[in-house]
From TrEMBL:
Lineage: Eukaryota, Fungi, Dikarya, Ascomycota, Pezizomycotina
GO CC annotation terms, alphabetical: mitochondrial large ribosomal subunit
Large ribosomal subunit protein uL2 RNA-binding domain boundaries: 102-178
Region (Disordered): 40-73, 248-287, 341-368
Protein name: Large ribosomal subunit protein uL2m
Domain Large ribosomal subunit protein uL2 C-terminal intervals: 205-368
Organism of origin: Zalerion maritima
Cellular location(s): Mitochondrion
Keyword Ribonucleoprotein: yes
Pfam families noted in UniProt: Ribosomal_L2_C, Ribosomal_L2_N
Database matches in SMART domains: Ribosomal_L2, Ribosomal_L2_C
GO terms assigned for molecular function: RNA binding; structural constituent of ribosome
Biological-process GO terms, alphabetical: mitochondrial translation
Membrane-spanning parts: none
Length: 537
């Protein structure tokens, strides 16, 4: 860390101030917050933990005075709670040899752009957490081999130490437990011998505790998620990542009570009839749907492990290294463009200048690199995939944001009243047309129209109708529908009062909403008609 240079006379002044302040004001105890345990996450905050940080203050980053070019753009998350000393050496291994350079045992490069860096030791992290009983968090440490922080645990009964991935908000002095091996007898006795899912969740679903997935309530934020029942965690282990339990099968919920009682019998007391009363279930009943950080919904074994909370170091993605040398300290070597290489090193290399000629962009081994080229083999089907993650270069993200904006209402986009001005241009009488964000699509407008109660819906396509096209999807109402019906449509769609003046220019509108004037005079149809069409902006 950069330290300011102080002169001897300034040091003397600081010492005088310290001595005078210590006599005037009592010094606060340094151990006052050492054993403070933050409260566990509740159901409302566990659904979307990332939104809470976005709505509040900005991420806490430490910037530096630009004394040198290397620190001008340097930004680091403030993690003053981390351990300043060295790691627990019995739980570490030296990382040296060919592994630091991205080579395998044969010496071939398997991971490019790796090499050099500061010497480090590998931390042995417990991803299984089979050890039951209370564990005390001794300290939170920095791990150079991963983006998240790790916590050093001490088992209260035996004093055995272990490393785990720390949860966001976990501090030294917290007491956490693992219920993967079963429920302890004292916990079962405290509930009167009857396992209630709500009471069980209130006693076990605390931040940092490890539970099997069938014990976690729906909507809970988790990380360190396993894939199989007898294996360790494989999902959501990076900094700030989390998953959400989306749904459980109905038969799984019915048999959850019997499974938990058997687990409690294995751990606390001997039950001779536990093996004979094992319920029979289908193959699909042993899976629970979990939404991962990428947006993918995946089937996970109901006995797989997970940890309550969010992975620590949530502001890791906001950091800025400031200079190329810090990347080299982190064992990251430069990434050279293909057009800057020789012809023997890359298909884009060679020639005079930096042109890749008319060749389609490819990888160094000739595989197509752009235009959405599929590299996964067709016969290799992922049987555990329920909903794939959104792709298409971020265009689906705009669609999701637009749909969320419609769901939240116009007040969330800019507030105020929604006004739609209708004029008398064109052939028509009174009608109206409102623009909505480009990512909403025609199908969403169909659903909105049917929900309001129109008789039949007619889709009039002008150009291409697609939810991914850059443009604006518009919906208009024929003259017979009247302003009153259009007003109801807008109010039920956007959730705010809508005023429809007969004449006059358009008033001030919230962001993402524009007003057009397009009318078509028609004869009174037998039933209300809602015309949907797509039009470029």
């Amino acid at each position: 860390m950069l330290q300011p240079k102080l002169h001897p006379w300034s040091l003397r002044a600081i010492q005088i101030c310290r001595s005078s302040s210590s006599r005037t004001f009592p010094r606060a105890a340094w151990y006052a917050t050492a054993n403070y345990a933050p409260p566990p996450p509740n159901a409302s905050s566990s659904l979307s933990p990332s939104n809470k940080s976005n709505q509040g203050s900005s991420p806490v980053l430490r910037s530096y005075k630009p004394r040198t070019p290397g620190v001008r753009h340097l930004k680091r998350p403030i993690n003053d709670h981390l351990w300043k000393g060295r790691p627990f050496k019995p739980l570490t291994l030296p990382k040296k040899g060919q592994a630091k350079g991205g080579r395998n045992v044969t010496g071939h490069i398997t991971v490019r752009h790796r090499g050099g860096g500061h010497k480090r030791r590998l931390r042995i992290v417990d991803f299984d957490r089979w050890s039951a009983g209370p564990h005390i968090v001794e300290r939170i440490e920095y791990d150079p081999n991963r983006s998240a922080h790790i916590a050093l645990l001490t088992e209260q009964a035996t004093g055995k130490k272990s490393y785990i991935i720390a949860a966001d908000g976990m501090r030294a002095g917290d007491v956490i437990q693992s219920y993967r091996a079963g429920l302890p007898k004292d916990l079962l006795d405290s509930m009167g011998g009857v396992i209630d899912p709500g009471i069980l969740a209130s006693k076990t679903a605390w931040r940092g505790n490890c539970l099997p997935l069938h014990m976690v309530p729906v909507g809970t934020t988790i990380f360190n998620v396993g894939s199989r029942g007898n294996a360790g965690a494989v999902f959501c282990r990076s900094a700030g990542t989390f998953a959400v339990v989306v749904s459980k099968d109905s038969s799984t919920a019915k048999k959850q009570k019997q499974q938990e009682q058997q687990a409690a019998g294995r751990f606390g007391e001997n039950d001779s009839n536990s093996s004979s009363s094992t319920p029979s279930r289908n193959k699909d009943d042993s899976y629970i749907h979990v939404k991962l950080q990428s947006g993918e919904v995946r089937k996970v074994n109901r006995d797989a492990c997970c940890t309550i909370g969010v992975a620590s170091n949530v502001h890791y993605n906001k950091r800025q290294l400031g200079k190329a040398g810090r990347s080299r300290w982190l064992n990251i070597r430069p990434t050279v463009r293909g057009v800057a290489m020789n012809k023997v090193d890359h298909p884009h290399g060679g020639g005079r200048g930096k042109s890749k000629s008319n060749r389609i962009p490819t990888s160094p081994w000739g595989t197509l690199a752009k235009s959405g080229y599929k590299t996964r083999r067709k016969h290799k089907v992922n049987k555990f995939l329920v909903t794939p993650r959104p792709r298409n270069l971020g265009r689906d993200k705009k669609e999701n944001e637009a749909a969320a904006w419609i769901a939240d209402g116009a007040a969330a986009a800019g507030g105020g009243r929604l006004s739609l001005a209708a004029c008398t241009e064109g052939r028509g009488a009174v009608g109206g047309c409102a623009r909505v964000p480009a990512g909403i699509g025609v199908q969403t407008l169909f659903q909105l129209a049917v929900a309001v109660g129109f008789g039949r819906v007619i889709a009039n396509a002008v150009g291409k109708i697609t939810a991914r096209r850059q443009g604006t999807h518009m919906f208009s109402v024929s003259s017979h529908v009247s302003v009153f019906v259009l007003q109801q449509l807008l109010e039920q769609t956007f959730g705010v009062p809508a005023t429809l003046p007969q004449t006059g220019p358009g008033s001030q509108l919230p962001p993402h909403v524009q007003v057009l004037s397009q009318f078509a005079y028609e004869q009174a149809p037998s039933e209300p008609v809602l015309h949907l069409f797509s039009m470029e902006s």
